[in-house]
Amino acid sequence: WVIEGRIRAFTSLGKGIFHQRIIRKRKGRAQWSVRDVVTNKPAGIVLRQLWHTAAGQQRLTLTAAGGEVCKEVFVSDYYGRKEACRQIEYQTTGMELHTSIHVTTS
Fold first, then answer.
1. What whole-number distance in Å separates Cα of residue 72 and Cα of residue 22?
2. Is 72 in contact with 48 (CB distance < 8 Å)?
3. Closest CA to 14 of 43, 50, 52, 34
C-alpha cells in the first residue's frame, strides 16, 4: 500500500515550500517506509522529523540516515492528559529524510 500527500508548508520560512510524505506498507509485514521531502527549503535550515513512541516501547525499531537525538518528553493525546514518551528525532540539512519502521512480534 502507498499513501502520499503534499502540502504547502513552512510559510514563515519563505514562499513556495512544499512538504511531501510518502508512506509504503507491505501487506502482511509489520514494516513501514516513510519518506519526507521538503522542496524549496532555504539553505541551512535543518529538516527535523519527530517520532513519539510509548515510554518503554521495546518492540519498535526506527532507522534513518542523519543525526538521531532521543529523549524522554511528554505528549498529550487528549486535552488535560499528559503522558511520558520517548521522542526520536532525525535531522538533516538536506531536503529529504527516509525512515524505516519495524515492529517485532516477540
1. 27
2. no
3. 43
Going across the sheet that includes 81-92, the strands are 47-54, 81-92, 67-78
Question: What are the tens digits of pLDDT across the range 26-81?
Answer: 898 889 999 999 999 999 899 889 888 876 666 778 888 777 888 889 988 889 99
Look at residues 30, 102, 99 and name the one whose alpha carbon lies nearest to residue 61. 102
CB atoms within 10 A of CB 58: 8
pTM score, two decimals?
0.80
Q: Return the number of other C-beta atoms located less than 10 Å from residue 41's C-beta.
A: 21
